[in-house]
Structure formats: structure tokens, C-alpha cells
Amino acid sequence: MKTNYLFVLLFFTLFSSILLFSCGGSEEDPKPDPVDTTPCSSPPTLSLTAESTGCSSNTGSITATGAGGTGALTYKLGSGNFQSSNIFENLAAGEYTVTVKDNEGCTKESKTTVENADAPTISLASQNTGCDSDNGKITVTATGGSGNLQYKIDEGAFQNSNIFENLTAKEYTITVKDSENCEATAKTKLKTGINYTDNIASIINTNCAISGCHSGNQSPNLSTFEGVSQSSSRVFARASARSMPPASSGRELTDAEIKAIECWVADGTPEN
Known about the structure:
272 residues; three-stranded antiparallel β-sheet; alpha+beta; 22% helix; disordered N terminus
């Protein structure tokens, strides 16, 4: 009988230990209370209004409008501290995140972008330079921006005039600046104005695309625009070396004709 009593006591002690540990604690180390995960009953709402900044200054701003939530609302910009004011000033151009928080710690965040003030827009009108000359011209038409506009070409100084003259054939970069130092740029390439139909065809047909030469029975075929255009680099190289037309033909290109071929190739071999 004593043995049975000891067995029952041992079984009850073991069962109590298992039950205690399965409940997540002990009398000395009680199970913690569950975390309150109840969502905010009425979180605040948030809308943002951004004002643009000057191109060379940090004058942008964001006004945050919060509503709802519980109690007074506070606001923060990015990773900054919460504040009672809903206005953030002296901002550079870029994207920003604003967060609103109520008294219960409920938050709402939103993003907005502070833009640069509108820079001027540019359109360019160009005049051909002529072959081996500096008669090129660029006229700039600019709209928008703030205050008076100034203009510069490549790395030159800004000027009040929107016209650049006495230019040679090449690519140019035009910059327009307004009174807030907002800048806009555009590129244009001035050409000589030499084309195949008006300037090159007669040279080729008279000296190269002739019977027994490059009229079709000898490569390259220079009897068509396509043939001359595809072989333009070779034509210019041989014309410059005065090996085309050959001396045996009794013909010779003038310096002006060779220069015309060079200008035509530089312009991209336009047909007309």
C-alpha cells in the first residue's frame, strides 16, 4: 500500500511539471502577457503640397495637411524629428517623405517631389556656313524662365544677344540662363550646305564616271548617287591625293573641287 502511494505522488509531481512548462512559465517566471496588436482605430490622413525651388538656391517648401487620428498631430520630414509645424522650408530639389503621427502613435506617410523652377525652353535656327568659310549663324528663340535671359555659345561668356554669327561648320552647344540662374542647353550642328545634286554630281560625272573609268564597268560604280555616297571616303582620299582622275586621263581636279568634295563628305553626303 505504501508503494502505491509513492507511485501516485511521483506521477502527480511529474504531470504537474509537464503542465507548468507547457504553459510557458513557472511560478518564479510567469508567462508574459500577450502583445497588444490592435490596429489604430482611426489613423490620420495626409496630403502634401510642394513648392518648387530656384535652380541655384534651396527655396523649396512642403506643406503637410493632416486630418483625423486622435489628439494633436505632429509631422516629420524624412528621418528627422517630429514637430508641431506642418511646414518644411529651405528645401533643395528632390523627393521627400513626410510622416504624420497622432497621440496614439498612429502614423501615415506620403511622398512628394520638390521640382526645380521652370527653366527656359530653347529652339534654334541655323544658317549654313558655306564651304571653307565662316558664314554660319545661329539664332536662339527662348521662352519661359524668370526675368531677363542671357545666351552663350560653347564655353563663351553670356551675352544679351540671342544671335551668334561668323561660325564655321561644326557642332555647337547653346546655353540660356534666366535671372535665377536656371539654365537650359541645346545642340546644333552647322553644315557647309554642299550637296550632291548642285555641287558634286558635275565634278564626278566630268572626271570620274566616264567611259573606261568608273561609269559602271569598273569598281566602284560612280555613275549613281548611291555609288558615290557609299564610296565617298575613298573618293575624297583619292581626290586629295590627286590620283583620281588618273594623270593618264589628262584631267585634274581644281583645289575648289577637292574642297567641295571634302565639305560634302563632312556634311554627311546629302543628295540635295
